[in-house]
Amino acid sequence: MLTRKTVLSYVQQQHDVSPDYPWEKYPNYVALRHKKNGKWFALMMDITADKLGIDSNKVIDVVNVKVEKEFMGVLRQKQGVYEAYHMNKANWVTLHLEELSLLDELTEFIDASYDLTS
């Protein structure tokens, strides 16, 4: 199972990016930003599963990433990939960390989002 720690560790090692906690009201929401332009390439949050259409009030960890529009439909059919929560649904998806099984899958999403937002 992938965790917040896994995400933060990967982003620090691969992109030399430290977490930014911009909202006092939401202390577990983490913005991951480019050092040069300050743009987000990922947003990690803890939300209740029902916000993704899952029949549960369990608090889950998710990561929003930007994806190429032409792949949106195919990506949303994959396990752990949902319509973006609280972001532009035409450009972003939400990844449910517990449902993703491979670190490589997660890192591909993060790296692609990093490239798309640079």
Automatic annotation (TrEMBL):
<dbReference type="InterPro" id="IPR007351">
    <property type="entry name" value="YjbR"/>
</dbReference>
<dbReference type="InterPro" id="IPR038056">
    <property type="entry name" value="YjbR-like_sf"/>
</dbReference>
<protein>
    <submittedName>
        <fullName>Uncharacterized protein conserved in bacteria</fullName>
    </submittedName>
</protein>
<dbReference type="Pfam" id="PF04237">
    <property type="entry name" value="YjbR"/>
</dbReference>
<dbReference type="InterPro" id="IPR058532">
    <property type="entry name" value="YjbR/MT2646/Rv2570-like"/>
</dbReference>
